[in-house]
Every structure is written in structure tokens, then in C-alpha cells.
TrEMBL record, chain A:
Residues 1-51 are annotated as: Disordered. The keyword Transferase does not apply. PROSITE patterns: GRAS (PS50985). Residues 351-433 are annotated as: SAW. Residues 138-203 are annotated as: VHIID. Residues 37-47 have a biased composition (Low complexity). It comes from Lithocarpus litseifolius. This is Protein SHORT-ROOT-like. Its main location: nucleus. Keywords: Nucleus, Transcription, Transcription regulation. One of its GO terms (cellular component) is nucleus. Residues 13-36 have a biased composition (Polar residues). InterPro entries: TF_GRAS.
UniProtKB/TrEMBL annotation, chain B:
This is C2H2-type domain-containing protein. It comes from the Eukaryota. One of its GO terms (molecular function) is DNA binding. Residues 1-44 are annotated as: Disordered. The keyword DNA-binding applies. Residues 21-30 have a biased composition (Low complexity). Keywords: DNA-binding, Metal-binding, Repeat, Transcription, Transcription regulation, Zinc, Zinc-finger. It comes from Lithocarpus litseifolius. Residues 63-85 form the C2H2-type domain. One of its GO terms (cellular component) is nucleus. Gene3D superfamilies: Classic Zinc Finger.
Amino acid sequence: MDITLFTPEESPFFQSTQQSNGQAAIDMHSNNQPQNSHTSTSRSSDSGVLPSASGKWASRLLKECAQAISEKDSSKIHQLLWMLNELASPYGDCDQKLASYFLQALFCKATESGQRCYKTLTSVAEKSHSFDSARKLILKFQEVSPWMTFGHVASNGAILEALEGETKLHIIDISNTLCTQWPTLLEALATRNDDTPHLKLTVVVTTSTVKSVMKEVGQRMEKFARLMGVPFEFNAIMGLNHLAELTKEVLGVQEDEAIVVNCIGALRRVEVEERGAVIQMFQSLRPRVVTIVEEEADLSSSRDDFVKCFEECLRFYTLYFEMLEESFVPTSNERLMLERDCSRSIVRVLACDDEKSSEEDCERRERGSQWSERLKEAFSRVGFSDDVVDDVKALLKRYKAGWALVLPQGDHDDSGIYLTWKEEPVLWASAWKP
Amino acid sequence: MMSEDGIPVPSTVGGFVQELNSNPNPNPNSIPLKRKRSLPGTPDPDAEVIALSPKSLMATNRFLCEICNKGFQRDQNLQLHRRGHNLPWKLKQRTNKEVRKKVYVCPEKSCVHHDPSRALGDLTGIKKHFSRKHGEKKWKCEKCSKKYAVQSDWKAHSKICGTREYKCDCGTLFSRKDSFITHRAFCDALAEENARFTSVSAVNQNFKHDLINGTISNTQLAGIPQLPSAFHPEFAGSESVSNLIADGQKPKLPLWLDNAAQLRQIGITNNSNAYLASLPELVPNASMSNMFGSTSQMQWLNKYPEASFTSADLTISSLPRVLKEEQENKGNLSESGVTLYPNNNQNQQTGPGHMSATALLQKAAQIGSTRSNPSFNGTAFGLMSTSHSHVSNSRNEVQKNFRQQNQAGNMNELLNSFPSSTLNTTVGDGSMLVNSNSSSFLQNTKNLEHWLMSNNGKHDQHVPAGKHHASSNEVERSLTRDFLGVGGDASRPFLQQELAKFASMGSAMDLSHYTSGHH
């Protein structure tokens, strides 16, 4: 093995940054030992002079590289990129995976090729997605992790309570969940009491990969609603480039309907400057309740500071990847696909800053408190009732350990409820009324 | 008949009647004092109707001790207590006055049981009814958050909550209701059209009711068995199935074919089971089996209890065309089915009644075998299994090559060698580059290419032909793309510079071959 490459004294370049890189180099090796056999065998070091593992080599290297990029220190950039490339693998352990996907973004940032890379990734993804693969992926994910179902249960609970007694419901679903949220709602509507209301579901699709499968999804929903005995109507709005362009007419909103706006993971895709407009648009629809679910990360306030943004992005995705690793079986293909889906998002956030895209795919997340500030302009918060909270808790019990529900503290119940993974908040769910 | 001491002892039915002459209950009763339940819906016309207010109805301690005001639920308990006060206690004896039967009405005016003709005969019963229907639900199940007003209901539920398994038509088992529902909505075995066939008008079952209570009696199933025989002509008329039965040679359905052949080998004699058996693993199969009615389905389930999720997965993901065809077939069958069941309005959209059959089948399935025997998951996992040894080998190669630092070619060559050929490998292939004379940079960047092509990953059965540029690095199929994921067309000045930098990174790294400009 080429341990010689990493020993500081042999390389002139290392000398300038000997402290950090040399140390990092040594640490890298040590960390490769205990990990998955399929890659670590190749990295089994001959050197033997390594100090004990000190954990997250990927995060260290990546942050250094990000720092180097922001300082435009090209020699260091090269060095680190090269090192990361050596060690990264999308099939390895968490560190290796993170290294792999973030390396791609860093490289694109350094070479200013983010937009092109993103386009390529997107088109590749589009080609490979089909209804069956998407369905399988989503259902499996929901089975092993409450990442999606948390938001579904909380939102459905809020919706049912807000629309109690209504006979004509119109739910505007702005999400990419392939309508997996709605079967349980349909069942609840059917069984809740004897007079089942009429439900109209209008799905607004924002990602391109989902558009192609929506037709099939719609058919399934219609069938299922028939099965449940719920009068149902389905519409899908695709090809919309900007959410703010939605109007009552486009959505088919009728006067006698009780409107619900359900927004799962979609607000973050709106360009930061347009978010206020989108919220105004929601208000114009005069909904009874607006349910928002978003991932908890702040990638928008730091968007002018590359390193900060990078660190936050890395923090979030580290949690996410770790969660995926622990939730799925090691050989899971679904997990691999979810990880790959992240790569696009990461490239978009880190390497595509100044470029306006035709679609809304900005992916700049904000924290719950930040969204709350925006939403307060037009709405006031509706707390989740005890029943809904109990439902969420019961949901979390059905999954592996590590998940918890955190309720807002104190009187300034300004935010919603948080899903935490190993005590780190990862998702935020809230409900709003005009 | 009176005994000698004048105390009437009812000993016969006649005597009984004499004692309680207002009770039309015909049950002959050898235990004279025991009250029997009336038949439901047959209230005693002469019974005394008691209407308690909600407060007194729900009062738990109606019997009060006059001395200390302690409350008791039963008179007997109060009497026992009174003995403690040295008071004479009054044993409530059966008096020889006629004891009129008491019936109770619900105090809630809007309730059906408010009317004396729908009164309930049991005080405890009316209390529970009032709680359930009009009371506050104070008891909540921990697992599923379901609420109950009556504690005994809650207890009973808690015992069985989580132990019940839900079974989809496709054979998959679920312990959680919500994941079952979501799966069901997207399952290819969504048997809605088929439900029309099997919903017999005699079975008047509320689907919602079923779903909540999960009670289904076998009598309902009994109404269905005529279906299979009645069905055969219709079924045989449909294209694909008849082809299957005949020779299974239908070109569009290769897998079905195989299964049919396999199962014939197993020697399935029962004709109806043959239909079912010929499609054991296939998701659409379930829908067909539904048409044969639940009894057949139960048989089928017993025979082929492989309810493994993986087999369902395998079928779902690998037979998109087959499934589509199944959809069409279902369409065909539904039309032909109308003649059999003219009652079923195909356009019927609302109302729980006509959906009952699915519920029936569901329940039947639950009552039936719930074994899950994942005997077919070999192939499924085969698709997903990783063979990482290749990866590690290749990496070893990489390192070696890198070390040796041959003139593997210049950077130009490298970049040219990443045409847009798709990354064929996935984990399953293990076909990572095992390169003999590659440039190390190519090897090292294979991961970089991975990202770019990653989404094709495993589904990549279509490696585009002609994208395989010849290069010194040519290895099998898993060539990689250009470092940036595009076919190396743009000029990126930085890259050139960067390559130069790489070149100067140090002799130990021996990157001399990177010096040339790129394409």
C-alpha cells in the first residue's frame, strides 16, 4: 500500500500545511480499519504507526477543503481534493459516503461547474425513476424511518381537526411525497364518523423526477378512495416553475370548499427572495389550515458565507446519512438511492449559488424558527392538540430507538413540533391558520 | 303450584310463568330465579321502563349508608356495611310480589335508545351504552391512540392492540395499521374491480365497521363459495389467463409462464387452485384469487404462505409490463362480470356497503394463515447483495498502479477515456474497474464518476452502446464518465492549471503523467 504517499516529509507540499494535513492523513488511516470490510481491506495500512482513531476524518478534511476554496488557496485545494478522492466512496461507511458526495460538490465549486453537474445528475435521476422504483423507495423509507411519516401524521391530525364537520374538503398538496400521506387520511375520513365528506386533492409537483409518476399515483389514489368509500377527486399540477404563480383558478378552488394547504418539504425549494410571495399566495387561497413540514437546517441565512453554509450542510447531511445507515439494512438498495438523491441537493446548495434555475430547486433549508417568522406575517399558529401529539408519539414508538418528539417550550409557542434523532432536531412540523 | 307452607316455589315453566306472568320469555328454566336474556330487539311490552337522568345513570355509588353516607355500587354491599353499624340488615329476598322486569332508556334525546321501544334491559348495559355513545372518551390506548369511554373496552383493546396482523391481498403482512393502509393504497393487488365480483348482496357488511372492529364471521364467507364455479367461464374468457392455463406460452408473460410450469410440476390437481397456484408470487395474482372467493384464497394462502415482502418486491419491481397487462385484464373481467352481478353498480362510488367484499377477504386472510414464510427471498436479495470484494481488489490495484507510476498516459488521455459511458456497476455487479495498466487517476476518479452516473446505478440495464471509447484504460463495461460528468467538451481553464498543480504535488505521488493539457 502506498502509505509513503501520506508521510509528510516526502512531499514538499505537505510541509506548508504539515500540521493539519499530516495529522489528518494519519488519522484517516486509522479510521479506515474498523469500518466495513469491503473497503477497509484495501486501505489496511502497513504503516502501523498510527495513533488511535479520532473519528470523523471526513468532516475535518471536508471543512478544510471548504476553507481552502473560500480562501482560493489552490494548492491546498488540490491536495485536499486529491486526498478526499482517495478515501471517498459512495459504498463505504458514513464518512466515506459523505466524503464522496461532498467532494463532488467541492470540486464543482472549485471548478465552477456546479450547474452543469447538477443538470447531469438531474437528468440521470429522471431517467432512472419509474413509478415502481419510486414507490418502492418511498414505502421502504417510511417503513424503516419516521422521517416522512412524522410530518404526515402531524399534518393529517391537524387537518382532520381543523376540518371537523366540513363536507367538502379541498387539500392542496405541495410536496413530493407521491401522495403517501393521504391513504391514512382517507381511512380516517371514512371511519371517523358516518357522514364521509367529499375530498378533492390537488397535488402540486415541484420536482421533475416526480412528474412522470404522478399519473399512476393519481390512479392509485382514486382507486383507494373508492375502496374506502370516500368521494374523491384528484388533480395534479405539474410543470409549474414558480409556486408563487399559483392562483385559485389554476388550483380549481371553489367557494364552498374548505381549503387546506399542505406543504411538505416544498418551501425550501422556493428561491429565498420569493418565499414571502409564496406565503402571501397561500393566504390568498383562504385556507382553513396550512400545514408545513420542513427539514431543520439553516442553509439560507449563511448563503453568502461559503464556509458557514458548508458546515451547516455537512452537519445536516451527516445526521441524515447516519440516520439512513442505522435505519436500513446494510445491503439496502433503497438507502443507496436516497443517498444519491442527496448528491443533487448538495451540489445545488454548495456549488450553484449564483445561477438562476428555471425550476424551483433551490434547496436552501431554513430552521423552523425562521419559517415561523415568515409565516407569522400572514398566519397565526395553531398548536397541535394532545391527541395529535399522542399519535406522533405512538408513531415513533413503532420505529427503532433514537427518535423523539420535542414540543415547544414555554409560552412563546412560536414554532411547531420537532422530530429529533439522537437528540438533534431534524424535522419541524407546524400548523397555521389565517 | 304451591308448596305446603304457602310459599310459592316455581318449579315448572308454568310456575315460572305464574310468578312472572308478564315475562313472555319462553325459555324453560330449571334454575327458577335466574333471569335470562331476552332476545335482542324484543323488549318486554309489560316491563317497567326506567328513565334515569345522566347523573344518576353514571352514578357509581347509588346505595348510600344512612349513618356514614358511604356509597356502594350494590345493595348487597351496602347491607353488609350496615351490619357494621349494628343495624339490622335487610336481605333482599325474592318476594312473591310480581317483579316487573325493568328496562332502561337512554337519557340522550337524540339517541335511538331514548325511545322506550328500543330500551335496553340491563342497567350496566345502558350505562356502557351511554358512555360509549354520548360520553367522554377518557381511556386511550398507548400504542395506537385509540380512545374509549368505557374502561373495560379499553382494557380489552389494549390486550389485542399490536397483536393483530394485517394482510394485504398481495400476501404481505403488517403489524402496523398505518403502514398497511399506505401499502394497500399503492399495492398492485388493489382489488377494487374484483371486489365488485365478490361482494355478494347477501353480505351486508360495513367495510368501515370491519376495518375498525375486525370482526367477521365465517358465515359471511360461506355465502361466497359458489363463485368459483360460476366464475370459470368468465375467467376462461379472458385472454391472458386462459393462455396461461392452456400452455402458458404467452410471450408477454414470461415469468407467469415459469411459475405455471413450476407449479404444474408440483402437481396441483385442484382446478381452481391451479389458477391461483400458477401465480403464487405475482402481485397481480392476489387480485385474481380474490375473484375466486375467499375460501379459495384461504386455501391458497395456506398452500403458499410466502408472505415475504421481498417476493412482493421482486414482483413489483421486475414485472412492470406484466402488471400493466394485469390491469387491462382486470378491466376486461370487470366488464364481463357485470352480467353475473347485475346488482353491483359499477359506477357506484360512495357507500360502504359495496366495498364489503374486500374487507371480507381481508378478514378472511387474517383469520387464515398468517404465517409468513420468506422462502423466496433469495433472488430478491441477490439483486441487492453487495459484492464488495471486487471493490477492494480494485482499490488495491489502484494503489499499486499509482505507486508504480507508469507512463499510463497523460491527462488528456485520461479525460478522453471517460466518455459518457454509463457506469454500469452497482454493488451487485461488483464490476469495479480492475485495471491492469490504467492510469491511476482514472482509477482514482472512478468514485467521482460514480456520483455522476450514480442514479443509473442498479437499474442500468441499458448501457448505451458506442459509448465505450477505446483507451488504454479500457476495462469491461464499467467505464466512467468524465470527471465532471459531461463528455469532456468544455474548456475549463482552471482544470488545466489544476492539472499542472497536481503534477507538481510531489515526486512521491508521482503525478508526472498529469502534465499534459486536457482535451
